[in-house]
Design a protein that fits this description.
The protein has 186 residues and is α/β, with parallel strands linked by helices. 23% of the residues lie in helices and 35% in strands. A hairpin with a 2-residue loop joins strand 3 and strand 4. It has one domain: Rossmann fold. The strands form two sheets. Strands 2, 3, 4, 5, 6, 7 and 10 form a seven-stranded mixed beta sheet that branches. The chain has a three-stranded antiparallel beta sheet with strand order 1-9-8. It contains four helices and ten strands, in the order E-H-E-H-E-E-E-H-E-E-E-E-H-E. The structure holds inosinic acid and magnesium ion.
Amino acid sequence: MHKDLERILVSKQELEKRIAELARDINNDYRGKEPIFLGVLKGSVIFLSDLVRSVDLDCTMDFIGLSSYGNASATSGSVRITKDIEKDVEQRDIIIVEDILDSGYTMSYLVDYLKSKAPSSIRICVLLDKPARRKTEVHADYFGFEVPDDFVVGYGLDYAERYRNLPYIGVLKPEIYNDKKEVDVN
Ligand code: IMP
Ligand code: MG
């Protein structure tokens, strides 16, 4: 285990097993369709790349960059686009892929933004759900694991851009992020 972690929350084996289950659900729900997997940069990329390799559908991928300014470990609710989607999504089935649903501000903003582009459908697939901190009315159609109100890293999730490459999800030691100044949290 990485020295900055307090404990491992989800192991590599648990991630693999659960992602295969999510892919199976998506295969069943989108049979005969050609969804767009829309990854939110950068936290979703590891999850997205494993998920799509277990999906047995014709599909495409696109990415959007979103940034929410807050303190080091919590978002403030003001979201902006740092990289827009590249392809037309009108009348397409979009599956948003995100690392974690925390306050929900980022996801609510993204769903509203995408609705303005008139897709056929929008569903949300998140690896982690932290319901204790929800501030908006948003729920995931697919989610991997519910997590407690701790700051978690690994498998795409970062703290100050670090730890994304860990092959498991762990709880960061609070002393690593305490007393840090304002940073972008996405
Ligand atoms: P929101 O609060 O739901 O808007 O989440 C915004 C973003 O904050 C997420 O997409 C993550 O990138 C990041 N985030 C929220 N909670 C955590 C966490 O526990 N670890 C790492 N990143 C997090
Ligand atoms: Mg993120």
